[in-house]
Amino acid sequence: MDSMRNSCGQVSARALRAVHERFITGEIDAKFLDANQVRPIVAESWQRSLARGVDPEHGTASASAAATVARLRDSHPLAPALPVIRRLLVDDAVDSGVVVAVSAADGTLLWVEGDPAVRRKAEAMNFLPGADWSERAAGTNAPGTALALDRELQIHGGEHFSRIVQPWSCTAVPVHDPDTGALLGAIDLTGNSEVASPQTLALVRATVAAVENHLALLRITGGCPEPARPKAHLVLLGAGRPRWVTTGEYGHLRATSLTGRHADILALLTRHPEGLSADHLAVLLDDKDLDVVTVRAEMSRLRKVIGPEHLGSRPYRLQMPITSDVGEIFDALDAGDVESALTRYQGPLLPQSVSPAIARLRTQLSTALRGVVLAESARGRIDLLRRWLDLPEGRDDREGWQLLRDNAAVDPLARAQAGGHLAGIDFDLS
Q1: Please, is 426 exposed, middle or buried when counting C-beta atoms within 10 Å of its C-beta (0-12, 13-18, 19+)?
Q2: Would you state the pLDDT for residue 1?
Q3: What backbone phi and psi angles, to 5 degrees, belong to 109?
C-alpha cells in the first residue's frame, strides 16, 4: 500500500483516481476504504456526497443571478473585511496562479478574485460568484466541506468528489463572528497542487484571524453593525413531529425535525435560562435509568442539529433567546390574552414524551389554559369554551360540557348537543 504514496506522503493521482472510480461505481464502500488510500475525512465526505446525489461527473453547483449576488454581498457581515482579505491574499494572488474565494456560511461564493487566467478556467466548472459550493451541492471540496465540518481543510486534486474539480487543489478556513462565534463563511485559496501546502494553510489561517480581529475592532468603534442574531423557534405542541424552525436571510424559513429526546431537552432549557447541569438534566429527563454519559452524548448530537452557536455548556444552556409555541402561550396567559393563548394551543406538549419534567410542564400548561377558559366562560365568553371543547383535551372535559349545557345564553340546539355529549362521557365513566 505504501507504494501508492509519493515522496511527500500523498497518494499518487493515478492511485487516487482508481480508488475514486471504484467508490462511485459501488465496487467499494467508503467505510472499507483504507486510510492509506483515502484520508478518513475525505472518505466520509465522499459518502455524504454520494448519499445526497451529487453528480460525480460535474457536481451540481448552481449560480444565482447577478442581482442576488449583489444583494448578498451588500448585506453580508464579511463585506467590511474585504479590504483586509484583498491586502493579505488577493494582491499577491493576481499573478501567482491562484484565486481567492470568500463564501457565505451556506456555501454560496460571494467573491472570487485573483489571477485572471485562473479565474477564467475556474468559471468553466462554475466556480464563480453566486455559485453554491456547499458540500451538499458540489460534493467534497475545501470551502464546502470546511463549512460542513466547521474546521480548516485542504483538499488535494483527486480527493474532490466531482471529476471536473479534480485538476484543482484548495485550502479553506472558516470565519466566525468575533462576538457570538457564529459561522459567517470561509476563505479559500484554489489553484494547483502547491495550494494545498502547510505554508498556504498558515497564510489563510492568519488571514482569517486578521479578518475576525478587524470585525471586532469595527464593532467596538461603531464602524460595523452588531451581528445579526439568528432567530429560532421551537414547535412542541400537538401530535406532529417537534420542529426547530430558523429564520435566515430575507425571512427564509427552515424547519428541522427533532427527535423526542432533543425536543425534551430544548423544552427544558427554554424554561431554565440559567442552565442545567448534566446531572440535573438526567433527573429531569428520566429519574431512574438515564446516566450522565448518555446526556452528554445527546447534547453533542443536539449541538450538531441546531448549531453550536445556540447551545452553551457548563451548565448546558441556550446561548440566545429562543421562542417557542409553549412560551408564547404562557406569555399570552400572563398578559390576560386568553383568546390569543387558545389560538396558539395546538394540543398537548410533546404528548409522546415520558420525561417526568415534561409531563409536569404539559400538565401545568393544559391546566392553566383550561382554567382561564372556564373562568372566561363564566363571564359570558362561551365562544372560548366551545373552542376548548373542540380540542382533543376538551372532548372528555365533563365540567366544560356541563357548563355549556347549563349556560342560558346557549341556543337550544347547542344545549341539546352538549347534553348528548355529556351523556356519552358519563356512559364511558360508568
Answers
A1: exposed
A2: 35
A3: -75, 125
Residue 175 Cα to chain centre, angstroms: 17
User: Cell 484583498 maps to which residue?
Assistant: 86
Model confidence pLDDT, tens digit, residues 183-192: 899 999 999 9
Instruction: Of 74-78, 255-259, 304-308, 362-366, give the range with the top mean pLDDT.
Output: 362-366
Task: For residues 113 and 394, give the distance between their C-alpha atoms in angstroms, rounded to a whole number.
Answer: 63
Residue identified by cell 442574531 is 229
Euclidean distance between CA atoms 382 and 397, whole angstroms: 15
Cα–Cα nearest to 123, from 146, 93, 101, 142: 101
- The three cell numbers of residue 141 are 471540496
Closest CA to 4 of 35, 36, 45: 36
Burial of 83 (0-12, 13-18, 19+ CB in 10 A): exposed
Place 8 in a pLDDT band, splitting at 50, 70 and 90: very low
- Phi, psi torsion values for 115, nearest 5 degrees: -60, 120
Q: Helices 325-334 and 356-378, interaxial angle, to 10°?
A: 40
Residues of 128-160 as b/e, b for ≥16 C-beta within 10 angstroms? bbbbbbbbbbbbbbbbbbbbbeeebbbbbbbbb
**pTM, to two decimals:** 0.55
For the chain, the farthest-separated pair of C-alpha atoms sits apart, in whole angstroms, at 94
> Is 189 in a helix, a strand, or coil?
strand
pLDDT at residue number 152: 96
Q: Which amino acid is at 340?
A: S
Q: Domains along the chain?
A: 2-51 (no CATH), 66-221 (3.30.450.40), 231-324 (1.10.10.10), 340-429 (no CATH)
Q: Calculate the alpha carbon distances from 263 to 126, 157, 224, 348 in Å.
A: 40, 42, 36, 14
- Please tell me the distance from the alpha carbon of residue 15 to that of residue 28, in angstroms, as a whole number: 14
Give the whole-angstrom CA distance, residue 266 versus residue 245.
13
376-396 tens-digit pLDDT: 988 888 889 989 998 888 888
Cβ–Cβ under 8 Å, residues 73 and 46 = no
250 pLDDT higher than 50: no
The residues, ordered by sequence, that sit 6+ positions from 212 with a Cβ below 8 Å of its Cβ are: 175, 176, 178
Enter the C-alpha cell of residue 54: 451529487
Cβ atoms of 93 and 211 closer than 8 Å = no
Bridge partners for 276 per DSSP: 316
Please check the confidence at residue 351 and state whether its pLDDT lies above 90. yes
pLDDT tens for residues 133-164? Answer: 999 889 999 999 999 999 999 999 999 999 99
Cell reading at 335: 398578559
